[in-house]
Task: structure prediction
Amino acid sequence: MTAYLIRRAFQMSIVVLLATFAIYVLLNVAPGGPLSGLRLSADRRSRVSEADIARLEAYLGLDKPMIMRYLTWLIGDDWLGSDWVYVGLAQYSELDTAKDGTPIVKVDRKTGEKYYTFTKHRFWADPGVAHLNPGYNLWVWGKEIEPSVFQAEEIQVKPPATAEAPDDVAITGFIESQNRYTIVIRDLNDNFYTIETAPETVWNFPPGEGKPLPEDGRWANISWLTGPGGLLGSYASFHGTTQGMVRMDFGFSWKLAPGQPVSDLIMSRLGNTIILMATAVIISLVIGIPIGVYSAVKQYSKMDYVATTFAFFGSAMPVFWFGLMLILIFSYQFKQWGLPFMPSSGVSSVREAPPGSFLALLNATPGSLIDRSVHIILPALMLSLLYMAGWSRYSRSSMLEVLRQDYVRTARAKGLFERVVVTKHALRNALIPVITILVFDLAGIFSGAILTETIFSYPGMGRLYFDALGQSDWPVVMAYLFIVAVLVVIATLIRDIVYTIVDPRIRFS
Result:
C-alpha cells in the first residue's frame, strides 16, 4: 500500500502540473490577452486606464517569457535575483515597520484588539539590481569608462522627486532595462546610458526598501545560482515578493475587492459553500441511494416507475429554470397568497424579517442560526433534488447489474433472507460505481454550484467564480481553477482507498 501511495503521489503531481499549465496557457493565449476584457468596458467609471493596464501587466508578469511567467505564477518570483535562502522549517518573520522604523499597529474591527503585522520571507535579495524596476529614477556616482558607459560606485534609488541631484553625481536617469549587473537608463533629453554595477557598488534605497540581510536566523548563500551574477542571473530583474500558487500565495484581487488578498476572498466565501454543498450532498445521499436500491429490488413496481420518472425529470430539468420556479412559487406566489414566504437570496438577513415571511413566523433574528438555515432551504432543495435524481439512477442501474450475478443467486438458493442478500451481498458491490461519482463531488463541495449560487445570489465560491470571470479578475479565476484541479486529483486517490474498504477483493499491495 505504501508503494502504491508513493506512486500515486508522483502521478498526482504530474497531473496537477499539467492542469496548472493548461489553466495558465489558456487564460493567457485568449484573443487580446488576459486583460482584453478590461479594455471593453463602456462605463467610464469602471473603465481601466492604460496606466492601470500597464501596472496589471507588470503584476501578472506579462513582460516575461511564457515559461517564466508560468513558473513565477506557480512557484513565485521571490527566488529570482535572491542571494539568500532561509533554511528553517518555517519562513523568516519580519516585523512590519513604518518609514521611521516604528512597528505598524493595526486594530481588529470586530474585537478592537491591537496587533502587529509580520512579513514572511523564504528568500532574500541583498540591496542591488534585483530590487529595481523599469521607471525608477537613479542618481549614479562613478566614472565614465567608455562613451555613455559608466562604472557605478554608489547609486541612489528613487531620490525625492523635489530634490536636486548633487554636483558630484555622474549621471541621472530613469531605468529602461536591466540585465544582471548592467542597467540602461534614459535621461530627460532621451539620451541612453549604460550603468555597470558590481557587488561592491553601494546602494541607497528609500526607507523600507532594499534592506540588508537580517542578522538573526539561518540563511544559506545561493547567490551563485539565483543572484544577479549567478547561473540564473539574467532573470534577476523579475525579482518580486510573490510566493506562487504552490505556496498558497494567490495574489491580490484587482476588481472584485481591489487590494484584498485572494486567499481572504476565498475564505470569506468558502464556509457558505461548504454548508450549502454538504447539506445538499447529505440529503441527496440519505434519500437518493435508498430510493435507487429499493427501485432495483422492486423492479417494474409502481415505486420503480415513480422513481425512474423522477430521475429522468431531475436529470433533464434546466438548473436555472428550476431555481427561478422555486423563487417564483415559494417567495413571490406565497407572498401573494398570504402564506409564509421564503427568502429568495443571500445567506442571512441584514434587517428584521418582513411581516408575513417564514422568518417572521419563526421570530428569527438577523444572522442567527435559524435565519441562516432558512436562507439555505431553497438552494439546498434545488441542489439535493438534482443530485438525488442522478444518484438514484446510478444506484438503481448498479444494483440491477449486481442482483443478476451468480453469487447473489447462490445466496438466495442457500435460503438467506432477501434483506441479508440485498444489504450484505449485493449492496457493497453495487456501491463501487456510486463511489466513483460521489468522491468527485469533493471538488464540488469546494467549488460550489455556479448556477445555483448565481440564481439565489448566494455568496459562495460558485458566485465568486462567476463574478470574477465577468469582471476579468484573473487572480481569483486562476486560484479557483488551481484549487479545483488539486481537489480532483485528491478525490481520485480517496476513491481508490475507499474501494478497498467497500470491496475486500481490491488490494494495492
Summary: The chain has a mean pLDDT of 84. The chain is about 45% helix and 10% strand.
